[in-house]
Design brief:
By secondary structure, this protein is of the alpha+beta class. Among the domains are: about 1-40; about 420-660, Penicillin binding protein transpeptidase fold, CATH 1.10.3810.10. Helices cover about 30% and strands about 35% of the residues. The protein contains 17 helices and 27 strands. The chain has a 23-stranded mixed beta sheet that branches. A hairpin with a 2-residue loop joins strand 26 and strand 27 (about 555). It is elongated, with a radius of gyration of 36 Å. The N and C termini lie far apart (about 135 Å).
Length: about 650
């Protein structure tokens, strides 16, 4: 038994001895390998870089060259005289020298994290000549890469992008003579950073912006922190005045200027494969101009966007903790976009009771001209919901409601919202320029009160344009919902769902302001007029029928009746009334309703039957009359003259001075 025990000890001792020897051998090999790698680090680095550069050259059609690439230390990399030139294009990147100090421990797990960088003479030149540019390869992706990207979830994509950004943002460093330029034919713009010094994650630098002969001087400061995954930056003008963004005005006719712009972003993990992006963007003294937005400069004193964005595998969500503020008004929007085959988008805003003046005094100057200077009292509350599932557009939901409590208008502001209650001067516009002005009231011989307009025409127009005009308060959400569904299905803006109230406000108060945000101003004015009962429905419809366009420079029911039929609007037949209602949507193209023999085209038959049935239900015609309605009229007025012109003839709209002559 003793002999067996001794044998076991000898065996274990032998195995332990061999294990120690194996560990020593492995450590020796590792040390030798490390020494060899360190001694040959420049050779290994150049071999690795040449392989990577060769792959990039083949994939993107580039010529990448450098004078020297070496490693002064175990985690330092230096490169000199680097250039990147796309084939048959101008040089894209030139670098005089750069030294990068990497995180050694991150290198051991094959991750790149820049601790310090020193660069001199970094020049990036974007050049476009005609349709060719030296940067178009950046937007080219092969099919396989696109398929691979589509397989990745959104949280992973965002996280990978931010890891790349934060990984290469140095905590300390110096950057000298950094320039980014853009040249397109005769246009030249350059952004230059003479010296950027980063110390302990913080930076401050001067930025020189050159655009043709104009030079601007900006300042920027902020903080970069890789460990916290946080980026903060602020930009403002070095000299007294505002920061004016280049390029936009010359190429897009847009002017953007501000006093200060600040931004912050922090990434954090939520678990379950989800991430959260929190931060804020603030702007002060913002001035914005573009004719598509407003004919005047939009002035926003203060704007703030404090956001929380959650990103998952198949969704991106703007959390309701997000705060949007402009001037005094503040609200919490919620947006969620989720992709399951097709996108499902939800947008919601719930703003509980708040002082009404917070809204109206916060409207940016230059954007809502008709409401500028308005004074209100009382409280408002707003609810909005848009739920669009592109997998089932018919299930689209649209909710919008602005409730008031003790609301009262103290001052109309720039525009007299009560002007429709009496006689007023109406000016019609075409393409932003006035074409005709006339009085809407008894002083105008062509004005007709409602009781002088045939009930047939009144009802035909209303049933065609807005059948519930007398029962709604300015808006028909169901009509807007159906119009939106139709537009999304047809992938174009073909229907708008406008009510007569909305058309009237657009023409009487906002005719000159044809821009993207006019609908918001239009909605505000409609709500005020309808909610406050500023103008009665009876008077609104009377004004509408006296200013509606029924042909080139033909406005109002009286002019239309005489232009087409040489009679008063009180004398119209059923067929004539339905015809006039049919051309309101496209009054300048009324000739398209006729064939070469001046007869109404057969396709109008369904429209005639629809309106006739509605006239019958209203008790204006009998069932027998409705059944016998046909699209048949006889044009006897001045409109006959237009039929002698070729169909592709443009009918010129004259300036008011020429009309008066």
């Amino acid at each position: 038994m003793q002999r067996k025990t001794n044998y076991t000890k000898e065996f274990l001792f032998s195995m332990g001895h061999k294990t120690k020897i194996g560990i020593l051998v492995a450590l020796s090999l590792l040390i030798v390998t490390g020494i060899v790698a360190y001694v040959c680090r420049d050779t290994l680095l150049n071999h690795y870089a040449e392989g990577k550069f060769e792959d990039l050259e083949k994939e993107y059609g580039l010529k990448i060259s450098y004078a020297r690439l070496h490693m002064p230390g175990i985690s330092e990399v230096e490169i000199e005289q680097l250039s990147v030139v796309p084939n048959n294009r101008d040089t894209l990147i030139e670098l005089h020298s750069m030294q990068v100090d990497l995180n050694f421990w991150k290198m051991l797990i094959f991750k790149a994290e820049v601790k310090k960088v020193a660069a001199d003479g970094v020049h990036v030149s974007f050049v476009k000549k005609d349709s060719l540019s030296n940067y178009d390869f950046l937007f080219k992706k092969d099919k396989k890469k696109i398929e691979d990207e589509n397989k990745k979830d959104y949280a992973q994509r965002v996280s990978n992008s931010l890891n790349l950004i934060f990984g290469f943002l140095p905590e300390n460093g110096n950057l000298k003579d950094f320039r980014v330029s853009y040249r397109r034919d005769a246009t030249y713009m350059e952004v230059q950073v003479p010296i950027l010094h980063i110390k302990e994650n913080r930076f401050e630098t001067e930025i020189t912006v050159k655009e043709d002969s104009t030079v601007r001087y900006w300042m920027s400061r902020g903080r970069l922190h890789n460990g916290e995954k946080t980026l903060e930056a602020e930009i403002y003008s070095k000299l007294p005045g505002k920061v004016s963004l280049p390029y936009l005005n010359k190429h897009y006719g847009m002017q953007v200027a501000f006093d200060t712009l600040a931004y912050r972003l922090t990434e954090s993990e939520l678990g379950g494969g989800k991430i959260s992006l929190t931060g804020k963007a603030e702007v002060s003294g913002l001035e914005l101009y573009h004719p598509a937005l407003s004919p005047e400069v939009i002035d926003l004193n203060r704007g703030r966007f404090s956001y929380t964005v959650n990103v998952g595998k198949d969704f991106v969500e703007l959390d309701s903790a997000t705060i949007v503020q402009f001037n005094k008004l503040q609200f919490h929007p919620y947006v969620r976009a989720q992709k399951k085959d097709k996108w499902h988008i939800i947008v919601a805003i719930d703003k509980p009771s708040f002082p009404a003046d917070e809204l109206f005094s916060s409207l940016p100057k230059g954007l809502f001209n008709s409401l500028d200077g308005i004074k209100t009292n009382g409280r408002l509350a707003y609810h909005f919901l848009l739920d669009v599932d592109f997998n089932n557009l018919n299930a689209l939901k649209l909710e919008s409601e602005l409730k008031s409590q003790g609301f009262k208008m103290l001052n109309y502001g720039n525009e007299n919202l009560a002007k429709m209650n009496g006689s007023f001067l109406y000016t019609a516009y075409e393409n932003g320029r006035p074409v005709r002005s006339f009085i809407v009231g008894p002083q105008n011989p062509n004005f007709r009160p409602l009781d002088s307009i045939s009930p047939l025409l009144q009802t035909a127009v209303m049933q065609s344009e807005d059948g519930s005009f007398y029962s709604h308060r300015g808006f028909r959400l169901d009509a807007m919902r159906k119009a939106l569904i139709y537009d999304l299905k047809s992938k174009k803006f073909a229907r708008g769902g406008s009510t007569i109230s909305m058309q009237l406000v657009k023409n009487v108060f906002l005719n000159r302001n044809k821009n993207l945000l006019r609908k918001l101003e239009e909605a505000c004015v409609v709500w005020l007029i309808e909610n406050e009962g500023i103008t009665s429905k009876h008077r609104m419809y009377e004004v509408y029928l006296n200013i509606a366009e029924w042909g080139p420079l033909i406005y109002g029911a009286a002019e239309a009746s005489h232009y087409y039929f040489q009679k008063e609007p009180s004398q119209l037949t059923v067929e004539e009334a339905i015809f006039l209602a049919s051309i309101i949507p496209k009054p300048k193209h009324f000739r398209s309703s006729f064939d070469e023999n001046m007869q109404l085209k057969p396709w109008l038959g369904s429209y005639y039957r629809l309106i006739a049935n509605r006239l019958c239900k209203k008790g204006l015609i009998s069932e027998e009359q409705a059944a016998n309605i046909r699209p048949e009229i006889q044009v006897t007025g001045a409109a006959m003259n237009s039929f002698s012109l070729p169909k592709d003839t443009t009918i010129v709209v004259l300036e008011p001075e020429e009309n008066e002559k």
